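can u pls check wat happens w/ adenosine-5'-diphosphate
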Amino acid sequence: MAKKTIRDLDLKNKKLLIRVDFNVPFQNGVISDDNRIVQALPTIKYAIEGGAKVILFSHLGRIKKEEDLQKNSLKPVSIRLAELLEQPVKFVPKTRGKELEDAINQLKSGEVLMVENTRFEDLEGRKESKNDPELGKYWASLGDLFVNDAFGTAHRAHASNVGIASNIGGAAAGFLLEKEINFIGEAVDNPKRPFVAILGGAKVSDKIGVIENLLKTADHILIGGGMAYTFIKAQGHEVGTSLVEDDKLDLAKDLLEKSKGKIVLGVDVYTAKEFSNDSEKHLHTYEDIPADEMGLDIGPKTILKFKEYLADAKTVVWNGPVGVFEFSNFAGGTIEIAKALAELKDATTIVGGGDSAAAVIENGLADGFTHISTGGGASLEYLEGKKLPGIECVDNK
Ligand code: ADP
Ligand code: MG
């Protein structure tokens, strides 16, 4: 079902509330990566050009105690945004009250205002994160129209997404949210085939929902990373000291059976005695993993096998690194998979998941991908086929 987007709104002179995701990382008080701000620019610029009075809402970090307030103020973000937009951004250090209301009422068409961190409302009673009805209603009263462009929080019903939408008479998607819906939603619901999923990461238990949902639509599911060892053990192999969830062995057996060959495991692994980058690296097949070693990366034969499945793929969804990519000596498999995907022609390639996205970006391969999801938890739940409240609250066309 196609969703209403900001293009469908008449913006001229309207007070337009936009929920963006400006939850950017800081190091020593300085923004260390402004990618999330950059990603929100198309929607904000479109609103400015359409003549809206633009009012931005975002959260930043978590607010549990008084001391969290100062270090999580959005003020530095508003300064960076003003630089990127090349126009002033009026920052209001409040989430409610007269100062905010006056500033909004003084806005002129094409001007931009930013409200303080929505989670400042979490200090007493988690009003933002629990979607307090009064708060959503109040924020909705500040504007005429609402656009949700925050995919990273779309898997949660908060006052600043669902709360505003349900009190202002609905919502439209911003360009970033639209992109996530188009790419992830389409890939899962209506993929061009062959559709290959690559799943990795640490634990099977984190990804059960994703595997089960993708078993319905994917043609092949390639499994690497820490979660592979539960499957390898379920097939009767010794896995040494590799990461295994023994309470998920039966489930892994069931999934392997149910998948009727759709689930594809590798053939070899790089192992080491310690969980450390400096631990000596050995190559083994699944048949001969030593009792005192753990698998930390996929081996070369596995990479070749996975590449064969990828060669004619038309849609690829990748979630979870296939090895401990934080250790340079065990990042090879993940980098090879990332390169293979980046080189695919005529295929839609999508990365969902915070760590897998980081692996692609760190290795300078982002340009080779069709879409790198901006939401870690949200993309995972979307891949599970769950309905995300932040998307559900956007009107259908
Ligand atoms: P994503 O954020 O992309 O969804 P996850 O959070 O599920 O990915 O998993 C990422 C983590 O999985 C990384 O920290 C990585 O070190 C770990 N991992 C990958 N392979 C292994 C392995 N063989 N043994 C232990 N941990 C692994
Ligand atoms: Mg992760």
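The mean pLDDT is 95.
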